[in-house]
What does this fold into?
Amino acid sequence: MCLLDNQGKVFIIQTHIACAGVNRSSDQGYRMEHTLRGIIFDFGGVFTKIRPRNAILHRCEDELGLAKGEMASLLFTGEHWWDVSTGKISDEEYWQHVTDALGGRVPALLEPFKHNSFAYEDLNQRMITLGRRLQKRYRTALLSNATIYLDTLLAEHGLTAIFDVIVNSARGGLRKPDPEIFELTVQSMGLVPRQCLFVDDKVRNTMAAQALGLRTIVFHSAAHLIRQLKTWGIQLT
It folds into this structure.
């Protein structure tokens, strides 16, 4: 674990690499600074498939007479979601807000979301395989807006070792698309923004990363990502 103190805020990050400086004063240093050396991934919607989750949420909406999309909005937007995913409130406080918003009528199918924001999402096995292959040649990081449960989820499925650096918003007190959390991730990888590629399924996050100098790919599927990686000249074997 690596603890970084940034203006009084303590960030807890898992990292398996030592920070390495880049020599900007020489031609070799310039080339190194512009060579792709690290890949940063989002988790939900990239390493997981959200369609099964959405099907469950639609069933809950039907049960409660809600419009399509209202349940996802309740769970994953608003101040309560922001606060739990930055560690400002507990799972219990978050769930109390959800319960109150539903007037106490919480479908049984919804209960797993109390602690696990990735409930019902299937792991994307093709992405897991790709992640393992890429880590052999590049520094890899996970950057996720999540709750503390992400740590458990990664450990349970043996995914922690895929990433050299793991930045969980609930541990760091920051969320994408805040520029500071991208800067923190890149710094923890021992790289500079131009050396990193960021993969996320949300355009607002890739735009924020791009503004800092990272290369970006909006994730649609593993197959699409592989095609895009090849256009960057990234070695997959």
